[in-house]
Amino acid sequence: MLSLNKSRLGVVAILVILQGCSTPTNQLLSTQAERIEVRLDATMDVSSCIWKGEVTGSEGRWYSSIFYGNDALARGALNDIKNQTNQLEADTVLLLSPLDFQTSVTLIGSAYQCKK
């Protein structure tokens, strides 16, 4: 009986440690990043925009879904892609189809400077 309680205690300790490691880490780093426009429509006309580069936003690890829902992981991936877009001095991201995994979220897109 005592060894069973120690086993349970060990499992609980491991889960607590993993939760601390799985907190969504990507936060918006600036007010400019908050203003990034994220688009998912293929009809967006980028002919008057300047292409700045490819960006990839990601959040989550193999154990993240134990502690966080897909919405928290998606928000972290979105924050990551906005921060990268801001670093490229772009103001708009045209997303490709999201790569949705059960345990993480990855967004891939093209960053553009569209606003004058």
Automatic annotation (TrEMBL):
Q: What is this protein called?
A: Outer membrane lipoprotein
Q: Which InterPro entries match?
A: DUF4156
The opening ranks of the lineage are: Bacteria, Pseudomonadati, Pseudomonadota, Gammaproteobacteria, Vibrionales
Record's superkingdom? Answer: Bacteria
